[in-house]
Amino acid sequence: MVVHAFVGPSLKPGQRPAEGSIVWLPPVSQGDLLPLLDDPSVGVIAIVDGYFESVPAVLHKEILLAIERGVHVVGGGSMGALRAAELHPFGMIGVGRIFEDFASGRLVDDDEVAVLHGPAETGYVALSDAMVDIRATVAAALAAGAIDSEGALEHVRRAKALFYKERRIPGELRAFRVEQKRLDAGAVLEHALGLAGTKAEAPSWHLQWTDVFEEVMNEERTWRARLSPLDGALLDIVRLHPRLWLELRDPLLFAGLARRGHRGVIPLPAIDLDPLRSEFLAARSVHDPETETRWLDGRQADRGMLDRHLQDGDALAWLRLHPPGWFWQAMAERVKLHADGPQMIEMAHTLLRRQSKETDRDWSPEEFGTCFEVIWSDYISTVDEFPCDSMENHALRYFGWRNREEFSRAYLSVFVS
After folding, report:
1. Higher pLDDT, 300 or 391
2. Listed residue (199, 197, 217, 198) closest to 207, CA to CA
C-alpha cells in the first residue's frame, strides 16, 4: 500500500526520498482529498503543504470524511500541522514540532507556516522564509551564543511584524539556519510509511453532512482541475461527438447517483411547478381543472403524483446541465471502456500533441465570435433531434460545454489544422 502525500515547498523535489511507496501530490486544496476516497486502495494520506490564499483551503470535513472511511490521515510541517492541531482529537495524526506547538497553544497564527513560493515547474522554490523556521533559527543562534536573549526577542519581533511574503532569515543568522518545516515534513512521511498496510481505528463519531459540504463534494471546478491531460483531452473528444455524449451521459448519471446514494446529488434549486404542470397537461389536451381531474382519475393518480413526476423530470434536466463534479472523471473512464475507446484515446493523444505545438498560439475572442455560429451549426447537425431549447447557454451546457469559448477552442484544436 502506498502513501499519498501532499507536499510542496516544505520538501522540494530534490529533497524528497527516492521512495517508491509514496505518490507525490501538489499542495492540498479544497476538494483534493475527495477523488482519493473513491479509491479503496488508498489507506494513508499525508498532508504537509496546502494552498490557502488564492485557492480555497482543504476543508476540515474532507479530512474527517477520510478518517470516517478508514483512512489514516497524517499531518505536519505546514498546512498539515494546522489541520492536525485542530483535528487530532478526532483521529487525525499530528507529527513534528510545529504540530506540537500549535496543538499546545504555543503558536496560534496561521501565518507562522505561510511562505511565498514558485510553482511546481520551479520545484516550489521558496521566495520567503516561514516564521516557524525563523523562530527555530533564532533559537539555534541563541543556543550557540551568537546572540543574547534580548537580541533573539528582537529578531522574532521584527520578523513577526512583517507580512509573511516579506519575511527572510537575517543574513547574520543564516549560518544557524534551521528548516523546521523540512524536518517535520520528513517526520510526517516516515510516520505515514509506517502506517502503510495497517488498519485505521474506527472513529467514535459520525460525520454530519450539510448543504455546503454537499456542494463542495460535487463542485465541478475542483474535479475538472484534477483531471490528467489525457482525461481532459478525452472529455474534449467525447463532447465533440454529441451523439456519443448523449449515449453515455444519462446512464452514467443514473449509475453514479445510484452508487453514491443521496450524497452524490448536488442540491437542486427550488422550482415553480405551476408552469411545468400547465405545459405537461396542455401537451395532453388538458386545459381546465375539470378535464385535469378526469385525466388524473383515469390513471388512478392525483396532483401530488403528477407533481412528483414533474419534480423528478426537472431534477434530471438540472443534472444534465449541471453534472456533479465526480461525473467528469467518471465520463473519462467510461470513454476508455467504450467500444470506440482505443480510437478515442488515439484522438486524445493527437490533440495533446497538437496543443503542445500550438503553445505560442492563442485563439482570440474575435476568432471565437466569428466562427462560433458556423461551427456550432455544423456540430448540432450531427444530432438527429436537438433535445434542448434554443437558449445558447443551456444548449452548450446540454452537451457538456461551459461556454462558447471552451467549445470553440476544442473544436478548432481538433478539426482546424
Report:
1. 300
2. 217
